[in-house]
Amino acid sequence: MPSACAETVPAAGLLSRLPDDELELLLLIRHFELQLLDLYGRGELNGTTHTCLGQEYIPVAVSGLLRDGDFVLSNHRGHGHYLARYRDPHGLLAEIMGREGAICAGVGGSQHIRREGYLSTGIQGESLPVATGIALHLKRTRPGALACVYIGDGSWGEGAVYEALNLASLWRLPLLVVVENNGIAQSTPTSRQLAGTIAGRAAAFGLGHLGIGSLDVIGIRTALAPALDLVRRGEPLVAEFAAHRLGPHSKGDDTRSAPEIEHARAHDWYRRYADQHPRQFAQFDAAQREHVRAVVAEVSARPPSTWTRS
What we know:
CATH topology: Rossmann fold
Radius of gyration: 19 Å
Order of helices and strands: EHHEHHEEHEHEEEHEHEHHHH
CATH class: Alpha Beta
Strand order of the largest sheet: 1-9-10-6-5-2-4-3
Distance between the termini: 52 Å
Structural class: alpha/beta
Largest sheet: 8 strands, mixed
Number of domains: 1
CATH architecture: 3-Layer(aba) Sandwich
Number of strands: 10
């Protein structure tokens, strides 16, 4: 059984200058999410959506360490996870809008996406036991590959989470559990629904735990890379990010106070990167804003998918 360990990557004031394509990806996710909210506000989207505004740096940092043979599992707040893995805004928006070219013919919508090496679900905690099974399959058939599953702090109230962690540790599975702990489970502060700590719960199963408070993509990867090498060799890891959700749970259901929202905004990577790397940021921010607008215009003009027409 792997030995339990707990390490911390502290918050950093300075953000490393990213390669242009990495910054493009961060800004693609930011403007994609903003455009979704705008489309909903204009009545051009139905159902619901959960944006990852403020948390975009997490999947960008993690995806830079993943390989083609790895499997990614996401949750209800998963647009950034998908875009970081595939950079496919056209397919994702078509799926959400039910238009031709949709990833799942428009029947999965915002939360339920299936693609080669990728699966998301809106059911809290449900991805983790599925990820554990996939990790077992990868261990048997694809040595060196891992399953990466994104969950939130609210998922730690689900019993299936603990069953999955128990088996992952017992069977030494190549499983990376990325926890996006934004301090609030829908509308309930984490402090009011989670006893103890996530690090303590990981330790109870003999799992490694890495706490990450940094917003710096390069620094996060530097710290996470050696841990992922161990994951690939059968030492599962819980990587817990201290994140900040800028927007509401869904579209307009934000119960936080104005100071709480402002606190989240003060920890936004977007604002900090703009201040620290203004020339690069201005160039690529404008370009990605226009790129996403063009995606919206092109996808909006497509006919409904075959499934949504019927």
